[in-house]
Amino acid sequence: MKDKRRGRHTVQFSSPPYIVSTYTIAGPLEGQGPLRDHFDAISKDGMYEQKSFEKAEAKMMEDAVNEVLRKTANLPEYIDYFVASDLLDQIVISSTTASRFPIPFIGMYSACTATALCSSIAAMLIDGGYASKVVVATSSHNSTAERQFRYPVEYGMQRPPYSQWTATGATAALVADSGEGPRITSCTLGCVIETGIKDPYDMGGAMAPAALDTIVQHFEDTSRDPDYYDLIITGDLGEFGHELLKELAQSQMNLKFPNNLSDCGMLLYNKDQGVDSGASGCVCSALVLFSKIYKELCKGAISKVLLVATGALHSPTSCHQGESIPSIAHAIAIER
Fold first, then answer.
1. Domain ranges, residue 297
2. pTM for the full model?
């Protein structure tokens, strides 16, 4: 165990597992954005030929898992674990999807850090010798998450300019102990940070301090500098949170990033799509990582990426009771 730990929060994998294959399903708005040519599939509407938005989200995740198994010529019985996460009531989307596959299920809730946390657990299972193949999946849907955490879309609530648009879609990836593809070389699991923000629209402001905490801890644990990576990309801070992160890094840590810091929430949509500060949701970082970034890693256009997925850990109940929003960030290093 001591050989794998680096510092307080980081695990350095001795046999880094491969991200063998990915599959991405984007919603209609996401399919009009700058990454549209990189997605495997795009839904023509939010209903996805289902009777409710929740059923649509579950069917998207199910299809993503089926397709990543098909692409890798794997049957469910060849998979050791299915690790998944989503935003809805007791991760009901993940549980519903898991019921479709005879695979041992590990369901996790960590808000929009889902991609990094699920991938970290998959990598730990494989590097620890407890599994050889793990499927990770996540999803979110604008019309399911907005009415759970804020207001139904039909209500027409006036949104502040710093708010973000919950992304619609689902992704799945096969992580394995052998094969081809980029490898998960380390993960840094974050601590919960609470700064007193209570506005459920101000996700960027709530999550930026958590992103900085995990980034700084990763560099300290690994004795690396920001320029070690070709790309450091946060999960879904959006424009407001992204600028706040840079300001906090400079003022509190005297940390300057070279021109390699970006944010998935800023990359998923065009600015003229009416999404205010950018994207959020579990699938936000997953759609960006497992489409364009994954392809660039496979082709060798980039070789070292640090994904710092961010999540706001509030609930409808805590917001209604006026509680502040605790946040967290988890990081995974992916190298070719």
1. 183-335
2. 0.95
